[in-house]
Each structure stands twice: as structure tokens, then as C-alpha cells.
Fold:
Amino acid sequence: MKRLLFILIALGAFLEVHAQHYSGTYLYATRDTCNLYLDVYQPSAEASPTFNGHEKPTVLFLFGGGFISGERNNKYYMPWFKLLNDNGYRVVSIDYRLGLKGIPMRFDLFHLIDAAKKTQHAVNIGVEDVFSAVRFLADHAGQIGLNPANMVIAGSSAGAMISLSSEWEICNGTPRTAVLPEGFQFTGVMSFAGAIMSDQGVPDYKTAPCPQLLFHGTADGAVAYKKMAFGRRGMFGSHVIAGILAKKGYPYNFYRHKDHTHDIAGHFLATWPEQKRFLEENVMDKSGRTIDAMVDDPAVPHQKSVSLSDIYK
Structure:
């Protein structure tokens, strides 16, 4: 009886969080394999919609799950969505196609290039879905109540890889960007344990990217903290991306969590102070602030290490 009561209380708390800010679900794209939806969570009525006279951005979020699983409305994300809403930020959480679902993946020496090609494809179709979602939001901005020219893209793990790659493609004018509104650019990127897949060597930016906030564990065994490359093809992690941004003088905030594994992909609440400062100073105030810090904070709990073999077993 006590256990049932606890479950009912927990369910009630989840529904309350979901219902408080959730304002609707929209079909934004139809693919051959599935329909893609997005959920909108509006800012709290009592929260200020501005900071220092600047409009607060909408946060476009992509869930994690190794391109094989994940849900845009997973209850795990709800406390973070509520935190953003209570601080005046609208959240749009989207579906994207799971490009590795049901696909055999092997990571021995003889199959690494094949695995990289499959992962690259999963990222590419995820980027296509992001751009379709942006197009939909731009076309329905009045109905949803957002400014399509003021969106920060954020992602966890696989979602972070898609987020970083989406910004990279915008800066490099790839064919996939044709669907976007003319001149579209994100106002910021927030990456929780992300990387860029490339078959052209170390990724570069032809035009200046928006400010980027990078979180990564230095012992991440799932998404490379540095790089995992074979010739020109590979996965280039936050350490490499930060190096590129630093060399070109582009502003970024990078928090290297010492000895953390892939758990940083899910530490949304523990890293809120850094997110808040990034959103206020880099995105809204456009301060150009750059910080590159090694973090060893006991308030950010360590969790069990996860490897690629664990994810795709």
C-alpha cells in the first residue's frame, strides 16, 4: 500500500510538472518511416521574458539515446524543462529519426570505419530533422509564440552530436540548410557530451559559429572527449571542437569534467549555473566571453561508465 501511494504521488508530481508548462504537441514532418512531433513548454507566467532588455531565447532540445532509443517527452527531462521555464525560457523538445535503431554495430578494428559511416548517416538524418523542425517553427511562430530568429539548440549525447553538427552545417552552407529560413542562425549551442562526425578530417567553420557551451567528461567512453579518427573519417569531440574555436577566436564555454564518463550527458540540473551564465552573458548580452575550465566538483555526481559496446550490445 505504501509503495502504491509513493508511485501515485510521484506520478502526480510528474503530471503536475508536465501540465504546468506544456502547451501542445505538433506534427512537424512526415518521413517514410515515421511521423515526427515536437512538444512546446511555455515559460512560467511569473518569470521575466527578458534579461538586461534582451528577449530570452527558445531552447530547442534533442534527447539522447545513442541513435537507437530515446523520447522527446521522457520524464527524466521534465525537471530541467521546468527549471528553464521557471527562468523564462521556452522549451521545444523534438523527435528525430533513430538512424541506428536495429542496425548491427561492431567496434573491432575491422568494423570501425563501417560503424563510423553508419553513425555519420544517423547524424545526417538527424540534422535534416532539426532543420525541418526549425522551418516548421518559423512558419508557425505566431501560433506557438516564439521568435524564430532567437533559438538556442541543445542536445544530450546523440542529440548533442546532432546539435553541434547542425550548427557546423549552417556555418558551412551545406545543401541540407536550403530548407532553413534565409539567413537563419542559432543564437547558441548547448552540448552535453557531444561531438561532430566528419569524413573530411578535423571539422572547420567557413563562417563564424554562434557561441557554444560544451560539457564533457574527460573519461567518456561513449562519445569521444578528444577524437576517434581513422584517416580523415572520425568522431571529433568537445576537446577538438574547443581547440578549433580557440584558434579562430570564436567565443565558447567549455567545462571539462575531470574523470567523469558519459554521465555528463545527463547532468542538466547540476550544471545549471553554467548554463544560466552562458545564456545570459554569451547568448543575450553577446559578451564574447570564453572560458575553458577543468572541473572537479563533488556536487556533480559520478555515475557508472558506459562504453559503445554497452550501448550497442
